[in-house]
């Protein structure tokens, strides 16, 4: 009988964050080992409680949120998103410009399926949150990676990006603050992205899911504030700042010049219709989360001096950079560290195999840098969500392991 094979569309599609490394961790857990997991940016298991006002609203709304909703999402939530951007100084995003989804993940898929044809190119940062590259590939397009410069705080170079633009380029992805690097882009850089997209008439896709997770004096600049002459799509949601990743609640807001984009927007609406709607109860959390009275669910306090996220970032960064041969750009935002292992001292060829060996030896789970479409096998990604004692234990074990495998 014929083999049941996966579709050819999946050739080249990778998502290592939940790939073979996680499978190995699960196998070790089944054998009875306890694994310290520093691999997924999922706040709830690390003791970050959902904001009480969101929990309360979900409990209240459950009986009345049983049916499908409008495919774009319930009007009060889309109005709340529209009001939010207006308050942030971005005019012209009405409720009908907003699509709610089962997390930003679903919306990335819908947008790229609606936008990308075989042969189209989308500029994606390297390193990136790998869903972007995976979904561009699944859509039949090519992800063309633009480098972010570690020696310059992981900032992208706009001139280098411009050189990658070809007649096949249809869009550019900006992840700010960035996962995995934690880079937060200056207003000047964000304006530069907007101007570049406008000059070439390509779609600017701004993934701003970490917009409220900022440290020190970092300030987040919305890309949409600077895009007038081409289409801008802004993605955000409740998974990170509100810490309710499991509710699957996010949005994409359409702004800028829609005059050339009717066809694409019709396609996006068709795909949104085909999946009925986003999880209805979680849509009701959006107006609560975006109500100025909710104070963004206390995220600023968690990121301020003395706040849990800030302290964990600082401790993990200090412990990692104390390890000989390890360096790490201090992240200005998000919930990750992306340290570099000096290739002279750690001559790693296959970073996935390295991370699996590390896991077997230390019972600590991290993700390899190439899983984020980095070109070189010399980085690891750490999630800074665990408590200080857990981070200290995990990084201590890693430091011992690195002492054993270091060559010089
Ligand atoms: N975009 C980035 C940059 C992320 O890091 C993540 C999750 O880690 C997502 C999007 C997906 O978020 P959601 O839970 O809204 O699907």
TrEMBL record:
Entry keyword set: Aminotransferase, Pyridoxal phosphate, Transferase
A GO term, aspect molecular function: pyridoxal phosphate binding
E.C. code: 2.6.1.2
Cofactor(s) required for function per UniProt: pyridoxal 5'-phosphate
Pfam families noted in UniProt: Aminotran_1_2
InterPro entries assigned to the protein according to its UniProt record, in alphabetical order: Ala_Aminotransferase (IPR051926), Aminotransferase_I/II_large (IPR004839), PyrdxlP-dep_Trfase (IPR015424), PyrdxlP-dep_Trfase_major (IPR015421), PyrdxlP-dep_Trfase_small (IPR015422)
Domain Aminotransferase class I/classII large, first and last residues per copy: 35-395
Stretches of the chain forming a coiled coil according to its record: none
Enzyme class: transferase
Protein family: Belongs to the class-I pyridoxal-phosphate-dependent aminotransferase family.
Protein name: alanine transaminase
């Amino acid at each position: 009988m014929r083999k049941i094979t996966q579709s050819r569309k999946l050739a080249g599609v990778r998502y290592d964050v939940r790939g073979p490394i996680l499978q190995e961790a699960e196998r070790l857990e089944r054998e009875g080992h306890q694994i310290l997991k520093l691999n997924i940016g999922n706040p709830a298991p690390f003791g970050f409680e959902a904001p009480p006002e969101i929990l309360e609203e979900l409990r209240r709304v459950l009986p009345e949120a049983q049916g499908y909703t409008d495919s774009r999402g319930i009007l009060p939530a889309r109005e709340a998103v529209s009001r939010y951007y207006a308050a942030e100084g971005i005019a012209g995003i009405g409720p009908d410009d907003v699509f709610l989804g089962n997390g930003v993940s679903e919306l990335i898929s819908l947008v790229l399926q609606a936008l990308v044809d075989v042969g189209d190119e989308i500029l994606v940062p390297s390193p990136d949150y790998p869903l972007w590259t995976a979904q561009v590939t699944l859509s039949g397009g090519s992800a063309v990676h633009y480098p972010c410069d570690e020696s310059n705080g992981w900032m992208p170079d706009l001139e280098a990006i411009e050189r990658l633009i070809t007649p096949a380029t249809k869009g550019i992805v900006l992840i700010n603050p960035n996962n995995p690097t934690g880079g937060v882009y200056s207003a000047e850089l964000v304006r530069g992205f907007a101007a570049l997209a406008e000059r070439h008439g390509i779609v600017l896709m701004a993934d701003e899911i970490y917009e409220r997770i900022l440290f020190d004096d970092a300030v987040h600049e919305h890309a949409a504030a600077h895009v007038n002459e081409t289409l801008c799509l802004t993605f955000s949601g409740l998974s990170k700042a509100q810490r309710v990743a499991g509710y699957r609640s996010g949005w994409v807001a359409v702004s800028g010049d829609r005059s050339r984009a009717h066809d694409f927007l019709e396609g996006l609406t068709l795909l949104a219709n085909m999946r009925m709607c986003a999880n209805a109860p979680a849509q009701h959390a959006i107006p609560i989360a975006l109500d100025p009275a909710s104070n963004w669910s206390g995220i600023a306090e968690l990121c301020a001096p003395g706040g849990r996220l800030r302290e964990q970032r600082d401790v993990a960064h200090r412990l990692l950079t104390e390890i000989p041969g390890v360096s790490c750009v201090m992240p200005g935002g998000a919930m990750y560290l992306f340290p570099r292992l000096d290739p002279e001292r750690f001559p790693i060829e296959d970073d996935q195999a390295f991370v699996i060996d590390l896991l077997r030896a230390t019972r600590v789970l991290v993700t390899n840098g190439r899983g984020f479409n980095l070109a070189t096998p010399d980085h690891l990604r750490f999630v800074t969500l665990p408590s200080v004692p857990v981070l200290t234990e995990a990084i201590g074990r890693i430091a011992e392991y690195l002492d054993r495998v270091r060559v010089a």
